[in-house]
Structures are given as C-alpha cells and as structure tokens.
Predict the structure.
Amino acid sequence: MIPQGPRRKGVEWEREVARAFRRAMPRAGVARRPPRADVTAPRFWIETKCAKRTAPRVALRQAIGEAPIGVWPIAVCRADRVGATVTMRLEDFLQLVGEWAAARESCDR
C-alpha cells in the first residue's frame, strides 16, 4: 500500500536522502529504513524530517537516543520551500572534520 499525505512525503524524503548519501559515498553501503533509523550510512545514523515546519533539534535528539555507539547521529531536515539542513552535535562535527583533515593530509603526501 502506498502511504498517503504527510507519510508519503516523509517516505519520499527518506529515499531522496538515501540516494544523496549513495552518490556522496558510492562504495559504501547506504540503507533506507533499517531497524529504527530512517537511513544509515557508514558512521552515520540519520533521522530525516520533511514537513511544512521541521524541528531539527527534536529530530537530532531522536537520532542521539537511537544511535548505536560509534556512529554519528544526524538529523537531515527540509521544511517546505526551504533547502535541506543537517544538524549534528558540535563534538561529533569536530571529530568528523578532524578525520576528514587527516585523510586529506595523507592523500596530499
């Protein structure tokens, strides 16, 4: 059965976010609708929200509460007629940036 109304909008947004992560991480296993998370990717536990108005902090709190240890919980939200945003804890973001910078440095050598 095809979901109707807001639920359908949410399901389509989950698919769009999963496709975006697959494009960004082509060799990684990205899954939509695994147990509990809306989308998972290596090192990410992704809670998605798409509505007239979204509450990114509430979505992040949900992701934090469900994410297993060792992954970064994030909320990917899109309000109507507004671009998508990613919300994550500052300490997680700084760890991500640190890992990215180290990988970048090793590639530049």
